[in-house]
Amino acid sequence: MAAFTQTVRSAFTKVPRWVYLTAAWVLAALFPVLNALDLVQTAWIRVGVLSLLFALLALGLNIIMGETGLLNLGYIAFFAFGAYTTALLSSPKFDLHWPFAALIVVSALVAMLGGFLIGLPTLRLRGDYLAIVTLAFGEIVRLTIVNVPTLTNGPNGITGIDFLKPLGPGVTARLQSAGLPQAVSNLLTIDKPTEYYYLVLVCVALGALLLSNLKNSRVGRAWNALREDELAAVSSGITASRMKLLSVLLSSAIAGFAGSLYAYYSNVISPESFIFMQSVIVVCMVVLGGMGSIPGVILGAIVLQALPQVIRESAGAARSEFEVYRMLVFGVIIVAMVVLRPEGLLPDKLWRGQAHEADPRELERTRQTLFDLEEGEQDLEA
Amino acid sequence: MASEARTPLLEFRGVDTYYGRIQVLKGVDYEVYPQEIVCLLGGNASGKSTTMKTILGIVRPAKGEVLFEGRVINGLRTSERVKLGIATVPENRRLFPHLTVLENLEMGAYTRNDTAGIAEDLDRVYELYPRVYERRNQRAGTLSGGEQQMVAFGRALMSRPKLIIMDEPSMGLAPALVDQSFDTIAEINRQGVSIFVVEQNATAALSIADRGYVLQNGRVVMRGSAQELLANEELKRAYLGG
User: What is the ipTM of this complex?
Assistant: First the structure.
């Protein structure tokens, strides 16, 4: 058995990373083709869109939680900021119909402002205290949405959000009246699940690209140092408050961006989508995938978002039963992960094994250390 | 070594420091001259760690002045002080445990932009500690205490400092490693870096130091050359264990 796992492991580590990456992206891009060939129901494309939206959220949360080490239990509030900004400015509610290009930016900015407001007073906090404050912040945002119906329609939510027209409604209408062929004209409005799927997939890819560059920059290194030991980081010349605020701002901007896409996609938004449990689920996605690991958190989001649907489908007649036990299943998965594979599905260090190696023997040793760690050896002798 | 005519590299002039309403440092004066090793002795809660934090700017003095190369640095943030040439070996070393040794060393050079100079200094650290070179891709948290000590010194050197402040460098090291650690401090000093070291192990620290201060309840109660302090009867009873 040991020999077998050894073989599997060395096989895994011998294949270069880019092979896995390319394979994953190609598979993701080909998924809607299965639907076009009638092999997969459209419902699964919808599951795919939501999974990718949550992957975007998980990437954002990973910046503060995974890279900078600041727990945030109210992250879904930033998602809500983005979603409500888009909904209010592109729906019959105030009869405003801003173009997509403006809204996606404004939504991210509003979420950033929210991040700034909560970030400024709380960045000195750590651990438990930060968890409590962010949890409260998330709930305050949701309760405010519920209790200010003049602005938000309260629990009823906002309906009739505009269709997503990348070129804006004016240009699109003009092009269509100019006698564009139907097929081309259809593409100017994103409304089909497959179209959303590709839009969000591209956003996730861009997000992953941005974050992996950031991760290996001075900024990323400073975040990691703050996560590891704040005093030592400050002594090395990092300005902790500035770097933490940057981390909060960027992660809330990503959530706002995702929220905007979500509002367009779902057409209707209501406070129920932004409950505390959703924040917890995003945290679980990051932990499950592997904190600080970009491919890890994307995988974590897809697994946790899609898995309940898969289970529900296979439950057949017991479907409604499953809804009741959904959170229980979640809990079991998380506990199992923490016990069996605390570093997550795709741990960062394993993924970035080659970070600095030039000598193949060094590479082997790093991998060896990583696998030893996973097998439960003491992480820190200290 | 210390000539009073020269400008001290680091100087405290009548520094008072508070934590909330509790006063920790009470009118403290120190001088550290270029090329010197100065040792700060004192019991628990005497204000040694606060002294370190005040030098770094993590704690700001309520009264008095902290000067570096003759310039008042009271208002500078930590990062600016690091740029001026102050590096730290913190208590318990405090490496970044999940970063590799190389990444830890690179963090020491965080405030610098001269890629070529950083590479040069990295080579110097590897030369000083071949062991660190062997371990460069290993996570810092998996090293032994002695190895971590080397990385902590290396990290401090990576900012190309004029002054390194050390908080209890011998703490938690095996006895055999303590002497080695003081040898290294002396070696770093020979390369032209001044050292201000807080230490419980007074005998070992004074054996390599030029001068020393004794801190008690936030006041400097004794100061002098290392030889004078080593010979002082009162100090012997209190700190030197005999």
Answer: 0.87
